[in-house]
Amino acid sequence: MKKFYTYILIITLCFSSIGCSKEEKKENENNNKAVVEEKDEKEINSGVSEEKKIDYSAYAGHWVNEKLLIQDFKYGTTVDLDVDEKGYVNGSVYSATENLAHIAQVDINGQIENNKLSYDFDEDGWEHSGNIEIEFKENSIVLNIKYNEKSSENNLWGIGEGAFPLINDTTPVKRTLNDIKDGGFVAQENQSFDTKIDNYGDIKFISGLKREDGNDIAVFYIADRNNNILYKLPAFYGNNKGRFEEVNCVAFMDFNGDNLKDILIIGKFLSNEDFSKEIHVASIYFQEGKEFKNNESLDNEINNSGHNENMESVVEFMKNS
Question: Organism's domain of life (predicted)?
Answer without folding.
Answer: Bacteria
